[in-house]
Amino acid sequence: MRYLGQLAIYAAFAVLIGYFSVAPSYTHAPTDRGEIKLSFSHGGQKRGGCRQLSAEEIAKLPPNMRVARSCPRERLPLLVEMDVDEKPLYQETLKPSGLSSDGAARAYRRFSLPPGPHRIALRLRDSDRSQGFDYEGGFDIVLQPRQNLVVDFRTEAGGFVLR
Description:
Elements: H1 2-22, E1 34-42, E2 51-52, H2 55-60, E3 69-70, E4 78-84, E5 87-94, E6 105-113, E7 116-125, E8 135-143, E9 148-154, E10 159-162
Parallel strand pairs: 1-9
Antiparallel strand pairs: 1-6, 2-3, 4-5, 4-7, 7-8, 9-10
């Protein structure tokens, strides 16, 4: 009798797991739209410049930390803009990561768009300039339904790249 009870409980548990493995149905993304993902990690330029230390300042430092120049660790925030079909879709100032704000700033955003041809314009400022951008890129794409297009940023590649 005990074994029949265990068998009934195991069977009920297996049926429950089987049901939830197929129902309720879940669609991760609409089948009639494409998706663009803006995903990158980039460190902005250092905030401020290095300065030469005086002889008195160097003497005040511990012997193992005596250097002639003092350079800040903190990085500048990034300004990122993305336009699709000449309409602003994304604009954000990304703060650097890390306790001392000396790490890379990270972006990850998903945009659902109708399939078809689109013009993507991307801009990034990672310096202390007040106007304009350090990197600009433009792409003409044809987005397919259920397509995932990733926009990445690579300094060594000259800016924005599509994957």
